[in-house]
Predict the 3D structure of the following.
Amino acid sequence: MSAELQDLYQEVVLDHGKRPRNFREVEGANHRAQGHNPLCGDQLTVTAKVEDGVIRDIGFQGQGCAISRASASLMTGAVKDRTREEAEQLFEQVHKLVTEGPDGVNTEVLGKLTVLSGVSEFPARVKCASLAWHTLRAALRGEAEPISTE
Amino acid sequence: MSGAGFDGAKVRADFPILQQEVRGRPLVYLDSAASAQKPQAVIDAISHFYTHDNANVHRGVHFLSERSTSAFEGAREKVARFLHAKDAKEIVFVRGTTEAINLVVQTFGRKNVGPGDEVLITAIEHHANIVPWQMLCEQQGAKLKYIPVDPHGDLVLDGLDELLTPRTRILALTHVSNALGTVTPVKELIRRAHARGIPVLVDGAQAVTHFPVDVVDLDCDFYAFSGHKLFGPMGIGVLFGKKERLESMPPYQGGGDMILSVTMEKTIYNRVPYRFEAGTPDVAGAVGLGAAIDYLQRVGMENIAAHDRELLAYTEQALARVPGVRLLGRARERSGLVSFVMEDIHPHDIGTILDQEGVAVRAGHHCAQPLMQCFGVAATVRASLALYSTREDVDALVRGLHKVREVFG
């Protein structure tokens, strides 16, 4: 297998793709948004319960490839118990990571999310990795229209 | 290997793009249904046109304009012969299949489809043969109905008599499904629609590339295809329309070339097909398409059809032996492509891993989301064949799928 492919499909990514965490609808969610990638038809819904500006619970549902499921699963773990501002900062860092690669990102802030760095070598897959994050941001900002990667 | 007179290696050598390596491996191009590669003869014809013949058509009195006009009209004649049309005036040059269908929708459709009327299409259409009709029906207060598909990918014709009603104004259907490879029984459908006076449009984008098409024998009213899928350039396509149909239709776009005379008060429209070709056409595109047709006729459409049948059978058998692969679309008659899923591995992941092996396939919904819903999948992997495809290409695909299994263990 090529080095690029190994970077893309790291063990952690494959594991989260196969067994996504928080793959559920959050009970009593007060934030919700739908994301859609018209390119492949993938869809996902993010639900979150936010209290006093802190994301107390978060889940996602829907269908997608290993990359989009892994990214969504890792996201739910990363933003839980974080403030909305922290989640927005993470969004920026993840976006930089999957588009530009690991150089110049704050690996401390990203933590486990750095396993998504391999995506930057695959421009066609950036949208897969970022769909959940765009959807989260829409949910937190209370945007009513479904989010599209196009 | 295939039909008499067909030399696969020689054909392949005619396509310069296939001689390269991608990602350090020989290119295996199995995405011809999305866009086909071009033989050197087509590339040369376009280059020759711009090097020697370029000028605007239908208006100049000078030498080059005459030469350009004769190249453009010559291409129209070639397309007419290719489709076995009676008259080159039945050939309208457009940008592609999508524009051909939109042209019919905006002219024939707006004139003939009114409130309470019905348009009949099928559940296996490409978005290009769904969305324009949806837009028309919404504008006109008409109803869009679908001929359903069965689990094999065949159209369900049991209820056809109920679907062809006195309000049906047109039947529009694909000749070959771009997502499943189903060859539809167009001739029978045309006969049954005509028995009730209903005209028929056929989307031939995936058909003309694989077998001979005769619009007189089919007796279709309209037939649409794209140049770039037929080994010609991007940006050129064809709408065939029976002359009496075209003559009864209002113009499509307004502008130069589609008029006979314009005064401040009134315009007299040009005759067909020019009435539908406003503005400067893609002359080099038409010339390139003409060269593609010349090339295909040198190889022989019957030879191409035989090669397609043989290689498709080989592909289906090879894929059926890969553990976990499930072929979608087992229609009675199939052409040109296979669509499949592999356990719960998403087609996009399969596409990425195959690409690393130099194998180009299409992964996604193939612009046929209603059909995907019928089959309960969001996406499939599609490997599509062309006259230059070989058993070695298929073997490389199979090796790539074993790699996919390794990664996803």
The longest strand of chain A covers residues 42-51.
